[in-house]
Amino acid sequence: MAIGARGRSTHGHRGFTILELTVVLAVGAVLLAFAGWTFSGYVHRSSAQRAAQVFARDLALARGAAVRAREPVVIRFYESGRWYVLATQVTGTEIVRRRFTGGDLRVAAIDLTTPGDSVVFSARGVAESLEGSGTLGEARFSAGSTSYTVFFNGMGASRVAES
Prior knowledge:
Blueprint: H1 18-69, E1 73-78, E2 83-88, E3 94-99, E4 109-112, E5 118-121, E6 137-143, E7 146-152, E8 158-162
Antiparallel strand pairs: 1-2, 1-5, 2-3, 4-6, 6-7, 7-8
C-alpha cells in the first residue's frame, strides 16, 4: 500500500469523474425543466380560475350596487385590453375597475359571449339584456391552454366551470 507525504493512504480517494458529473447535471436539468413546465401549467390554471371567480363575485357586486343606488349599473368589457369596469349608468360613478394583465389575475384572453360588450343591471337588480330570455350569459377567461367560463343569469347568479 502506498503512503503519501503525510502518512495517509492514496488509494480509494479518487473523487468523481467528469462523466459522472455530466450525467448528474443532465439528469438535474431534465428534472428542473419538467418541474418548471408543470408549475407553469399550474400557474395558468390558477390564474384563469381566479379571474373567473373574481368576475363571478363582481356580478353579485354589480347587482347589489344597482339595487342599493336605485340606478342601473353597467359592467363594460374591454376584451382586447383584458379589463372591465363596473359603474353606475346615470352618474357614471366607478365602482370597480379590474385589469387581468398582472399578478394572480393574469389571463391571455377574456371573451364575453353576451350581445354587445356590456351587461347592465337595472335598478331592480335584473340584467336587462338577459331579462325574460331565460338564457345564461357567458364570460370566458383563458390563460395558456386552460379556460374557465362563468355562466350567469339575469339575476347575477353565476357558476364557474373549467372549459
